[in-house]
Each structure stands twice: as C-alpha cells, then as structure tokens.
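HOLO CASE FILE
Compound: SN-glycerol-1-phosphate
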Amino acid sequence: MIGKVEEYLIRKIQDEGAIHITLIDPEKVTLESAIFTSSESESCGSSAIMIGGTTLASSSLLDNITKAVRSSVKIPVILFPNNITGISEHADAIWFMSLLNSADPYFIAGAQVLAAPLIKKLGLEAIPLGYIIVGEGGSAGVIGKAWPIPYNKPELAVAHALAAQFLGMRFVYLEAGSGVNQPVPVKMIRMVREAVDTVLIVGGGIKTRDQAERAVKAGADIIVTGTVIEDSRGEEVKSKLVEIIEGVREGARSKLKERRR
Ligand code: 1GP
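Model generated. Tokens follow.
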C-alpha cells in the first residue's frame, strides 16, 4: 500500500525532475541546531527531512529530535533507521530498508522482523527501500557488516538494484557512506538508472553543487546530504543548502528536457 509521504515524494519527483532531502543525525546535532537546519532546509527547497544515524543507540534522543523537527517544518519527516532503535512515533514515515549487501542476515531481514509490529502499532508509513552500500561505505558499511560494492564494479550495483526491484522494493538507495571523500560515481548511477524503474536515491559524500548536479543528470531522483550541513555554521548553512539544491535543480532541468524529447 502506498501512503501519503510516498505519494508526495513521487509526485514531486515527477513534477520537478529530482528532489533534495536533508539528513539529520541525532548524535551530531543539538535540539536547536536540528530545528535550525530543518527550517532552513524547508525554506531553501528541501522536500523532506530524514532523521537517523549509523551508531544511534538512544530512542529517547531520537524521539526528542524528531518531535522538535516535526513541529518546526511542514515537509515530511522520514526516519532513516540504523537498527530497531531508529523508530520514533513522532515521524511521518520510515524507510523500511533492507541492507541488501550485508553479510549479516540481521540487517537484511532480522531487524525488520523485530521492528515491523511496532511500526504497525505506531501507524508509521513504511516505505520499502533496498539499501546498497558502495565504495568506501563509511560507518554504515562497518556497522551494517556490508561487503561494499567497489566503484569499478557498477554491474554489481545494477544486480543488487534489480534484485531490490524484483523483491518489490519501490526505492533503491545507493549509499557511499556518510562523509566519504568520493560520492557514488556517475557511471554507477547511470547504469543503475538504466536498469531499474524504482525511485533512485543517491547519498554519501555529496558536498558541492557540481556533484549534486552530476548525480541527478546521471539519473538520481533524490539527493541526500547530511555532513555538508552538519559541518556548516550560521549563514553558511543557508548558502550550502542553496548551492546543493541549485545543483539538484539544474540537473533536474536537463533530466526534464531529456524526457520531453
Ligand atoms: C548518509 O547518504 C547519507 O547516509 C548522507 O551522506 O553525510 O556524506 O551527506 P553525507
């Protein structure tokens, strides 16, 4: 069943070509900075806020941040869980994600089984997502016990993404790892885009307008950034958001032009 948040995301991607989402890691923010970043993201044109972090262990910290963020923005707040501790009743939706290239079944279906009844009870919208860790993989690769897909093996990323689609997942996330030096290569994004019909999310290491634009031109529907804003202060938060979102929009313009041909 497709819920309201998923419908909203799909409609926005159809209308705008591609969208940006800001990721907030509860362990790396204060309540004030989370509210500030979310409000600035909304006013600069982000389409949603994702909340989660690889090493998050405190549900009460997540609850406090999620509640505060949700009451300060109108755009949807979507949980990005690292484990069963990544669930909060204060969000609009949750990426119901399976780490497809984990060597540990816990991250493929174990945590999901433990979490599903609570998600149902809380009435959270669950959005099915195939999560694929590539390149360096960052902390997500270590904690998720992934075998990250090397950047020079894009065909393996395609195989994983196709498996996600055939399993019924409607979103695929190519994750390079938070704060990494090299974002997902354009060639890998393009090959996955050509192979699957799902919504394609790309994140990890995107810090510039140019990187965001190239990822969208290659076929990303959603660009997620976290670190670039976490590392910014005051006025810089706004200028970085504007820069990244402008890159997404520029890439989207070329995508829409292509579509019309
Ligand atoms: C991490 O893909 C996200 O899960 C965002 O990565 O923090 O590098 O922007 P960054």
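CASE NOTES: The chain is about 50% helix and 15% strand. The CA atoms of residues 45 and 80 lie 20 Å apart.
CLOSED: yes
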